[in-house]
Structure formats: C-alpha cells, structure tokens
Design brief:
- This protein is mainly α and 96 residues long.
- The protein has helices at residues 17-27, 44-53, 56-63, 67-83, 86-94, and strands at 3-4, 13-14, 30-32, 39-41.
- The protein has a domain at 29-94.
- The strands form 2 sheets. A two-stranded antiparallel ribbon has the order 1-2.
- Helix 2 crosses helix 4.
- The mean pLDDT is 93.
- It binds zinc ion (2 copies).
- Residues 5, 7, 10, 12, 23-24, 27-28 line the site of one zinc ion.
- It comes from Halovivax ruber (strain DSM 18193 / JCM 13892 / XH-70).
- This is C2H2-type domain-containing protein.
C-alpha cells in the first residue's frame, strides 16, 4: 500500500512505511507527547507512541479526541505495526 504523509499539507507519498517514517522524522518537527512529554517524530511514530504507551482514555483527555478519531488511528496503527521493520521502529523511537 502507499503511505501518505498527513502532516500539515505535506502530502508526500511513499511506497513503504519505513520511507514515510524516515521522511516524517527528518522533514518535520518532532513533537512532545501531550500525555508524557516524550519527544517523538510526528506522524506515524507519534500515533504509534501514543497508542502503545497510553490508554484510549488518556488520549481522549489529552487530545480532546472523539471515537471516530480513535478508530482512524487504531486502524492506521494496525497497518503500521503489520508493515514496519521492528528494528527500525525501535531505533527511531529509542534514539530521541
Ligand atoms: Zn511530510
Ligand atoms: Zn507519551
């Protein structure tokens, strides 16, 4: 599947999730997680961080999200987890 960078108006499209994640880490500002303050690359990794480290309830409180927003992100998270190289993922989340 194609991966589109959804940060701001970027719209860059990548053939694999690794390329998209590397792009998001390099081309965009890192963000602080609203829940725990960890700085993570924006985009897919930010979603991955939030949904693997925090509960849905924490996410709703911190980001004022509704259930549709959560469903969208959970589906995306499944796609990311299924496709991404786990070593790369650990490296990108651990080296900040
Ligand atoms: Zn981008
Ligand atoms: Zn966090």
């Amino acid at each position: 599947m194609a991966w589109e960078c959804g940060i701001d108006d970027c719209g860059s499209v990548f053939e694999d999730v690794e390329s998209a994640v590397v792009h998001q880490a390099e081309a965009h500002e890192r963000r602080e997680c609203e829940i725990c303050g960890t700085v993570v690359p924006d985009g897919f990794l930010a979603i991955y961080h939030t949904f693997t480290n925090h509960s849905r309830a924490e996410y709703v409180r911190a980001y004022d999200a509704d259930s549709a927003a959560i469903r969208t992100r959970e589906e995306l998270l499944e796609d990311i987890a299924a496709d991404i190289d786990q070593e790369l993922l650990a490296e990108m989340l651990g080296s900040s």
